[in-house]
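Allow me, if you will, to draw on your knowledge of protein folds for a short while. I have a record of one protein: its chain in single-letter code and its fold written as discrete structure tokens. Could you please explain, in whatever detail you think fit, how the structure tokens follow from the sequence? The record follows directly beneath this note:
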Amino acid sequence: MNTIFILIDSLRRDYLGCYGNTWVQTPNLDSLAENSTVFENSYIGSYPCMPARRDIWTGCLEFPWRGWGPLEPEDVDIAKILTQNGHTSMVISDHYHMWERGSGNYFFNFSGSEYIRGQENDLWITDPTIPVEYSADPERMARHSLRSESYARYKRNTAHFRLEEDYFAPQVFRKASEWLERNRTLKDFFLMLEVFDPHEPFDPPFPYNEMYNPGYNGQSFIWPTYGKSDLYSEEELKQIRSLYAGEVTMVDHWLGYFINTVKHLGLMDDTMIIVTTDHGHLFGEHGMIGKPWSDLGDSNMYQEIASIPLIIFNPKEQGGKRVSNLTQPVDLFATVLDAFELPTPARVHGLSLLPFTLKMEKDFPKREIAVYGRYGESINITDGEWTLFLWPPAKSNEPLYWYSHLPPQFGDVKVRDDFDGRRYSAIVTRGPMSNALYHIKDDPCQEHDLYNQRPDKVKELKGKLKSYLLSIHAPDEQLIRLGLIE
């Protein structure tokens, strides 16, 4: 069976019709979902972009050991396993972090790769003669200290765009369609598509840019600054959401173009299709915007960030199905190997989801909890009904070690010069956040913190978190840092 894996960056599940949205147009994803298994309790694992990819590529949670980084030399990734077993694997991506310093080796073991240049901060076009015009106040554009430089770079990279087909998501899906046409006779191929949109900058072409907030004539912040959302007025936030929704619809349109190619080539009867994302994005919820972290205020991983879409089309069992069991990105590693009838290595943290897509009479392993987080910050746990955000009680946020052959190349993690052959002492600034408990079944927007009211539930989830971290052989200092052991 062929497998097509479509990873759409920053795709909020509540912006999709198949997850209950009524105002954003996603007819192609909704149609695919009608004939697929839709997972209703899928959660992130390691956060954000590249940590999520290492979860998928290796089947192991990254964040208890380190943060954003490349594959390690000892990693046995999904592409390596498939190619070593005689399967052709291909990645087509506009996700520039895939070839960026500090993370750029995720494509090494694929049989082939193709990259579309120019997204976000891609160091590509340098032409100083290209004029850079701001669509809004530069002081409230882009993120952190990157503001003017990042925006100017992106505008140079995209100055040649004239038609909808020139934009990034259309390019990825068109290249993927061309690859399928040339390689349709391959047996049991693995095609990985990485679509950076609807990740910011939010600049969809017409008609998507006017589809959800027609008549708006104010400032258009295509690249909002991460942090407190009160930097923007309610009308400006509405426009930001509308531009994001426009990008979602554009991605959906070109995904439909690609799915039509799969159908036209007669591949639907022998091809599993997985559609998911790495994380969500905040648009004013909880008073925040973007993908906040500790130094920006509230960096808890609320449902808008942590609860993600997952759709799996299995040609062997077509027909709509909704599954409420918990799932995480590490499970997709085992799922792909299962589809290729290959064994899952014993070391992985995931479980195959393939049985969920079939009518199975016998019992099979199921995930009871989902654990997720960002390196050096809180570790979070949900059982699908309750969610606990557990932060280190000490401001020092120690002990903490970075397990990698390389020190961090990206982000705000600092390490000491004490590498012992497998780890560095790490320093991550502890923000002002505190522990929180939410009953997400009755409080899906997480507005009522019950941490002090329900010590029984806090104790139960802490016990489950401790047991889980021990079961995956997480570093002892993570449990010490969180106060789970002394």
In short: The chain has ten helices and 19 strands. The radius of gyration is 22 Å. The mean pLDDT is 94. The chain has two domains: 2-357, 370-481.
